[in-house]
């Protein structure tokens, strides 16, 4: 009898410990609330991206909360500013997980920052949907709890350079990239097409992150005779480059990447920014889908927040919709295990602002369809190229 009681006690203790561990893992939920966390650059030049992404999250969260929340629980959104500084990203993610006890994560700053914070996210096991910086390291190899909405930088550049190469056969090419992980991925995509199409590259440069003066770089570009130019900057860098080209009175065919495909950039470039080619996987605001998104946002955001919307608001909105839908499918008692399983089952989720989103068994990357757009300075907008 004593032996039986001892065994029963051990089983009861084991069950209690297992239950306690499950409860500890499934943090961030009360009877009325569920916490979703995010870390973005909200200050400094990259805030143009981070603020917009957080606004997209807020639109999806407000939409869900207005409809009663996730199975009756209202979503509490916890947002930290990393200033685009990697050490602060890591600190912010740890704070959101360990102090704010978030149930799930969205966003996660830039490419270098999201790469650096992977060990923290993986160790925690928290369901995470990244939407700001889709770089291959985040899903190759697949990480159990981390999902990425978007398209790879390499594929984006390959798509853009292929288009420009076909449109401008036999032309001389120039390229400049940032000296970091972002710049390496841009250059890798570019080199893929250079090799395949045997492009004539007459200028290839790098710039330091944060560089503001591009007079020497653009003078070298001019002297090289480049007729097609891939501007591998992000925001301030591309603005400075285009201003320098204007001063030098040269107008090569220019391609830019989606991190800088935001309307405020066109405004700051002035007429020099007219006719730029860009690639993206979200719809432009000038189209029907973009206009519908803005109309939806008006009813859910403040006037100040509306001014911060750009293409990153669309990527943020889409990722938040996918995450909220997965948690919702887990029913009244969502867990991390269930949420991750449901994220993996994501199939043909419509967001209205990009192609349907899909993941799958062992697939943590949505692989969105791309399209080419061209800038129109007179309307400060980008329009699809047929």
Return the string of H and E elements.
Answer: HEHEHEHHEEHEHEHEHEHEHHHHEE
Q: Supply the CATH architecture of the largest domain.
A: 3-Layer(aba) Sandwich
Shape: elongated
Provide the helix percentage.
40-55%
| Termini gap | 82 Å
Spans of at least 5 consecutive residues whose pLDDT stays below 50 are 1-25
Alpha carbon gyration radius: 23 Å
Beta-strand percent range: 15-25%
- For the largest beta sheet, what order do the strands appear in spatially? 7-6-8-9-10-11-12
Assembly annotation = single chain
- CATH third-level topology of the largest domain: Rossmann fold
By CATH's scheme, which homologous superfamily of the largest domain applies? Response regulator
The overall pLDDT, averaged over residues, is 92
For the sheet with most strands, the description reads:
7 strands, mixed
User: How many runs of DSSP E, i.e. beta strands?
Assistant: 12
What class would the helix/strand composition place it in? alpha/beta
Q: Total domains, how many?
A: 2
- Given the structure, what is the number of helices? 14
CATH secondary-structure class of the largest domain: Alpha Beta
